[in-house]
Known about the structure:
There is one protein chain. This protein has about 375 residues and is an alpha/beta fold. It folds into 2 domains: about 1-125 and about 305-360, Rossmann fold (3-Layer(aba) Sandwich); about 135-305, Rossmann fold, CATH 3.40.50.720. Helices cover about 30% and strands about 15% of the residues. The protein has helices at about 20-30, 45-50, 60-65, 100-110, 130-145, 175-190, 200-210, 220-230, 250-255, 305-325, 330-335, 350-360; strands at about 1-5, 30-35, 55-60, 70, 90, 110-115, 170-175, 190-195, 215-220, 235, 260-265, 285-290, 290-295, 340-345, 350. Strands 3-2-1-4-5-6-14-15 form an 8-stranded mixed β-sheet, with helices on both faces. Strands 9-8-7-10-11-13-12 form a 7-stranded mixed β-sheet, sandwiched between helices. Strand 1, helix 1 and strand 2 (about 30-35) form a beta-alpha-beta unit. Helix 10 crosses helix 11 (about 330-335). The two termini are about 25 Å apart. About 50% of the residues are buried.
Amino acid sequence: xxxxxxxxxxxxxxxxxxxxxxxxxxxxxxxxxxxxxxxxxxxxxxxxxxxxxxxxxxxxxxxxxxxxxxxxxxxxxxxxxxxxxxxxxxxxxxxxxxxxxxxxxxxxxxxxxxxxxxxxxxxxxxxxxxxxxxxxxxxxxxxxxxxxxxxxxxxxxxxxxxxxxxxxxxxxxxxxxxxxxxxxxxxxxxxxxxxxxxxxxxxxxxxxxxxxxxxxxxxxxxxxxxxxxxxxxxxxxxxxxxxxxxxxxxxxxxxxxxxxxxxxxxxxxxxxxxxxxxxxxxxxxxxxxxxxxxxxxxxxxxxxxxxxxxxxxxxxxxxxxxxxxxxxxxxxxxxxxxxxxxxxxxxxxxxxxxxxxxxxxxxxxxxx
Length: 368
């Protein structure tokens, strides 16, 4: 199979979809890998490393996109829509519920689109999303602590406190992979942490796995409102696979927070779980509304591309290899969790939560 690895053109995106070692693994199996020149530079992988791994290097994005399978990190942008065609198989983070225009283009073109973020394993977990969620969770605390600084518009609160001064309070909406790692990072800084969650088993796990200053609370509108009044850093880590994130915090609720508090909405890729959220970039990461500093970068792990690229390749490569070796349909039979990643097939939406979010017809995935 011919596999294409293009340069990521999203603002501030320095990741690449496959490392040179991953390329070597694919080439050794008899596949042709075409890498766009400069694709790996931001992650520390120059073109020479890809050449030595057996890749074909080209400066032409069009040549890369002519491959049978295009493997990316982030969703295609308008400048890439012209490359869509019926024979193309696209495998990347899509988050289509938040980009209806892209969904329409994929449907019209006949592209077969698989989303990393909806691929499941045998236990219903999201193995391709997990490492990026872990990085984003850790980052949310680092960025939140940074922008709490007074010279960045924050209230000037040090999350860990000092002797004789109470630590800052961190409230996390969602106790999944991102929320758990955010809680662990915040606790490590010495903050007082509360995780709001609706899954009782997940709360029991968090209570047993995390430090004692991490508390869990059943997520209701009243509980969220009560927590916001004393929160210094609010982290949105809510995920409904394939669907738009629920708006758990309204503008009116946000006004209960003290001025200079910080919001980090990890769920911005799926529309955000806070009403006032809108996507930002690494070049211009924050804005202030209702007196609250909003950090809503839509590709947070791109800030640490060396770590992110290695982690992403480690989890995606087995799926890419299976698709390349046997074709998509056989791969989905051999790896049943891969079929849940199929979002668009033959001009139809095959992921129920996505179809519901966009108000579009749902067509049953024939490989599920």
